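Changelog-adjacent note: as of this version, every example in the card shows the full chain rather than a window. The one below runs 208 residues end to end.
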Amino acid sequence: MHTQCLQCLRSPRMDLCHVPATREKGWYLALMAPNVKGPNYAWLDPSRLYCHPQGLQDCVADLLQPFQGDPIDMVAGIDAMGFILGAAAATTLRKGFLAIRKAGHLCVQTLEQPYSDYSGREKVMEVRTDTISPGLRILLVDQWVETGGTMRAAIQLVERLGGVVAGVVAICIEDSEGGRWIQERYKCSHCVPPRLQPRFNRHQLGWE
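Full-length structure tokens:
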């Protein structure tokens, strides 16, 4: 594990204005905030990372690095937190951005896909049908892949419309059954250094 990353992860209040002299991959993970509200919430909140200008920039750059030179026609972000990283990635790549929504929000013709999210709740996802043409190469972006159910539903929507999944991007892709299913079948990118991955799989940040 990078020494700098471990040192950062021991700091629960990393300054939003501080930029490390040496910015190794994943340094910005220390900006994420742990759950303090109990089991009805996700185990952590990555969104504090987005408040740090250099952290957000480096996070997006690290996520996109493996796709340099790859043909990508469009970026799609998953409702709702995937919209932030997805729009940032689309802007960096100079591509369009497609929002994949929770069902019931779009007033145009859509295609729907049922799925179970990380909490086991049954939900429905939808995408407009007038943007994905056969062969269009789409980079799928979400904030986090825990059980893989949400991302797999997005993959199914793209492929049902004839699109091609050019890659899957998230801050973390956990080593769950669903996470492995995605990584075995699609080119993936995430920000977690290998020696930190077991901690994230166990939902431990390192500063508890």
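Structural remarks: The chain has a mean pLDDT of 92.
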